[in-house]
Amino acid sequence: MKYQVIPLFYAADARFQNTIRFAVEFLDAVDPEALRYAAAQVQARYPYFSVKTEKEGESFVLAKNSLPFVITADEKPVCLNSEASHGHLLAFGWKERTVWVDISHFICDGNGLAPLVKTLVYYYAEHRYGISGIDTGTIRLVTDPIEEEEYLYPFPDAPMPHADELPVKPKEYQPFLFADAWFDHDGNYAYNLQISQQELMKYAKSHDGSPVSFVSVMLFQTLMELFPETEKDIVFQVPHEYRKVLRRPLSHDCLARVFSVKLAPKDSVQSAEMLNTFIRGQIILGSDDSADIQAINGMLQLNAYMQSLPLEGKKQAMRGLVSGSLAKNTFGISYTGNISWGGLEKHIRDVHLYAGENNRHDSLSVELFTLGDVFSLCLMQPGRNPAFVQQLMQSFARYGIACQLMSEERYHLAPYSLP
Fold it and tell me: Closest Cα partner for 221 from 391, 383, 52?
């Protein structure tokens, strides 16, 4: 079976590799044999991720790839879609206590990756520790049937019905950006935190908030404490996936529409609760179904136009779209959602989700993931400078929210070989 690729696939180049790295840090050293066993089970359970790129006419498609997934005993990722990865868009690595999953963002988003990671950890634990006491109700196993909705191309063949009003023109912002001197630009650097879910949600839920809205408040207040003289707006971007409006809850990749939320320096006098309410309101407005439908229909129109183009024309069209839509922002924040591990978290010390290209505009990038009763927060920045994360931890402490720095490290995203 061959799978259709999402249009964004054609935008791939050396500057837009668009890969994700998920790290699982276990409580003890990685067992390579258990990891090989688990990776084989993952390949059996997720055939739509066991693919290679093929050219079909003037288009690319994803075709079955029966070669085994590559597993390297190295923290440095292999190049995806290349000989080093056996042509796969997915590979594994390990070192000491940590296992890495590297995957192309062109075939998966955070919500599509989460089930795969849970399956991997389940079979790793089965081989290494045994699975007594593990609730498999939310874990996809090899023995489970693979539902068609998991792997089908999620977008409709025809435009979706919607009101005929003109789309709202995005607002123009002059966002605050970090000065060149703020980071050392020695590669990408990550600070990994764990935050008490119960204590954070006490504040968020009191004003109909969310993890994204309240963490955004903490980031905003931290910025204002570090840069009190700034007169520019704090602009952050939030991705909003299309699963709900497409009615494709099981889809492994539904893309996302990214919208901006703005706070002005004068807003820093407001309480955390009021800021939470304000941000949550903007997120609700930005997540409107009608805006999603218009964006999906626009993508369908673009895809129809691209089908008339030769391969090089497809690449130019999508690269032009990507370069024109990468708006500058102070920080970006993404939350995969509340993930139930079924008890597997007892074997895990921490998880990190690395994504994005935060060094493009000297911006920060935050990925939130759940692990048991904590939020795992990965703060990524273009270089090493602990001043922001130190101030951020003080911001959480001020509200009585337990926050622990689990690790700090340079991180790598997998390179990607052009089709």
Answer: 391
